[in-house]
Amino acid sequence: MFYDTAGNGHGLPHDPFKAIVSPRPIGWIGTRGADGALNLGPYSFFNAISDRPKLVMFASSGYKDSVRNIEATGEFTASFASRNLSEAVNLTSVAAPHGESEFEIAGLTPVEGSLVKAPFVGEAFAALECRMTEIFRPKGIDGVVSDSYVVIGAVVGIHIREEAIRDGRFDMATVKPLARLGYMDYCDGGDVFEMMRPVR
Questions:
Q1: What whole-number distance in Å separates Cα of residue 176 and Cα of residue 89?
Q2: Which of 111, 115, 121, 110 is nearest to 155 (CA)?
Q3: Quick check: 90 and 180 in contact, CB under 8 A?
Q4: Torsion sign over Cα 39, 40, 43, 48
């Protein structure tokens, strides 16, 4: 089959776009508002975009507390979402009113960063401390501005739990990274195989 996305006439009961662009890592974004309120939300439009310097990005569909808090403070964390914490990740996706902490809703421990004042998930195998470098709303080819907000942050600190390290590596079989597929489907990345790049 083929369809153009302007008409989006795929004829399927659900739009397959996000299922095709998968699996997507989940950015479990922790922020502290200007008023001190803690916020934690999972974002499946998330990834690392540079190693030198270390940069990550996430996109929010709409202007949510995460974006508001980062605009106000310039700081956030990205906690590692793993299979063993999948229920907690899901609980933090609730549309809670501003000021109600998703850490508390999910029974998670907020830990303040060493270099930023934003909280991360104490139970997570790893967490990134980030300082925002830019926030923008992307445009389509027609120039129309999206309702999404893209946040880019420089990673200034990294936390890793000791049990996540095996043979000197952050061990995927241990941490089982949680990823978003299409629809309401998820997977974990614990089934690992290795391939070396070809040399010419």
A1: 14
A2: 115
A3: no
A4: positive
CA distances from 60 to 80, 82, 152 (A): 18, 21, 11
Cβ–Cβ < 8 Å for 26, 86: no
Q: pLDDT tier at 195 (50, 70, 90 boundaries)?
A: very high
Q: Outline where 47-182 has alpha helix (H).
A: 65-73, 86-91, 102-106, 172-175
Terminal CA-CA length for the chain: 37
Amino acid at 84: N
Burial of 68 (0-12, 13-18, 19+ CB in 10 A): middle
pTM as predicted: 0.95
- Phi and psi, residue 85, nearest 5°: -110, 15
- Residue 71 pairs in a beta bridge with none
**pLDDT (tens digit per residue) in 172-192:** 999 999 999 999 999 998 888
Q: How many residues does the chain have?
A: 200
Give the separation between CA 198 and CA 114, rounded to whole angstroms. Answer: 40
pLDDT band at 143 (very low <50, low <70, confident <90, very high): very high
> 147 CB contacts (<8 Å, ≥6 apart)?
61, 62, 137
With beta carbons less than 8 A apart as the criterion, state whether 148 and 61 touch: yes
